Amino acid sequence: MDELIVEHIKKQALPLKSIDDLDVLIEAIGDKKYVLLGEASHGTSEFYKLRMELSRKLIETKGFSFIAVEGDWPACYEVNRYVKQYADGKPNARKALNAFERWPSWMWANEEVLELVDWLKKHNETKPLEQRVGFYGLDVYSLWESLEEIERYLQENGTPEQLAIAHKAFECFDRFEKEGQNYGVSAAFYGESCKDDVVKLLKALHTKRVRYDEDSEAALSAELNALAAVNAEDYYTTMVRHDAESWNVRDRHMVEALRRLVDYHGPDAKVIVWEHNTHIGDARATDMKADGMVNVGQLVREAHGEADVCAIGFGTYRGTVIAATSWGAPVATMQVPPAQPGSWEELMHRAGAHDQILLLRKEDPVFGHEVLGHRAIGVVYRPAYERGNYVPSVMARQYDAFVHVDESHALHPISLAERVF
């Protein structure tokens, strides 16, 4: 069967030799409003660069409204302030990227993202405010950072009632000293939950923004920070009991944050999402379904219809990657060994040891039915245990297209020593 798949790839793959070759993807996207751009790792330079080029083309030729990424709302909103040239924005891109302090900061504080941020600012310079392209974070980890941002906002713009609700929420979380796992254990096993307090805070912020039609991004940011706090509370509580369900809490949060951003930008909004393949590829086409897990790709397709969503996966046969051997450990450049025999990446390499693009159709008799191992590398990676990094997948049901980088290279993080403060 492997040889049949290899021959099928040879017949359908398109070479990727220059940036212009990405135009086939732009054509395939057409008028779709949701473009989900994946990555097989968070530490591969080519994935960031190719997604940047695709994003530039989509923004310039199809008027996409914003980029939303697998990052924390408060840190990403600092970048948004910079690229939209707000009065309180940072003076340059490097200072804007200093906001990424939580590990793994290098996911967004890197030279590749720096280039994207500088381009976004330049693109926005000639646009009226309402047409400037934004940069937002969808993730759920920023509980304490989001609470701090809410407090800062309410001190300037809040009502006495909102401030009272906020102070009660802050006091509830204070005793956990910014340790999500400690909070999760206390909430899950000892009934020491702050959930009611943060839900009240979210409702208070949302009601004020809608009631007074305050469409400033500052009000939106406060609301999204409150949403992050609510769902982070749920995430940490769930995490200590059930890993699969905590994954679902996280991905449902990202979809809800995306929905609110689209609502804010209006009915004509077009969205580019940057996340790991395991988030943007449809979970129903992988073994995640059997474990009761959902993800962004599945939920966005279900909400908006597959005809309005384009999910593009990215992968590599071998190379180097930035990652760590355990959570919170120092980052290092690691070797990515040649893909396992019979895996999707190995079959792509066997079909042609060069960069390629595949347009995928669910009806395809091979790509739409065969289950293949598909490599996924996280921020924690141990090449010696490579066999465990493969997700059984039906590729044409997981993605609408796939970009294969035959030999990839590590991302270029901006170290603390290099940062401009």
Unreliable parts: 210-215
SS field, number of helical segments:
16
CATH topology of the largest domain: EreA/ChaN-like  fold
How far apart the termini lie comes to 56 Å
Q: Biggest sheet, open or closed, and with what strands and sense?
A: 9 strands, mixed
Domain module tally: 2
CATH level 1 class label of the largest domain: Alpha Beta
Please outline what is shown here.
Residues 210-215 have low confidence and may be disordered.
What does this structure look like?
- It holds the Pfam family Erythro_esteras.
- It contains 16 helices and 11 strands.
- The chain has helices at 2-12, 23-29, 45-62, 73-83, 93-97, 111-124, 143-157, 160-174, 180-190, 195-211, 217-239, 243-265, 277-280, 296-304, 344-351, 395-398, and strands at 14-15, 34-37, 66-69, 134-137, 271-274, 309-323, 332-336, 356-359, 372-375, 390-393, 401-408.
- Strands 1, 2, 3, 4, 5, 6, 7, 8 and 11 form a 9-stranded mixed β-sheet that branches.
- Helix 3 runs parallel beside helix 6, helix 9 (180-190) packs across helix 11 and helix 10 runs antiparallel to helix 11 (217-239).
- It starts with a helix and ends in a 13-residue tail after the last strand.
- It is an alpha/beta fold and 421 residues long.
- The chain has 2 domains: 1-137 and 272-421, EreA/ChaN-like  fold, CATH 3.40.1660.10; 138-269.
What would the keywords be for this entry?
EreA/ChaN-like  fold; 421 residues; 14% strand; alpha/beta; two-stranded antiparallel sheet; 16 helices; 46% helix; 9-stranded mixed sheet; 2 domains; single chain
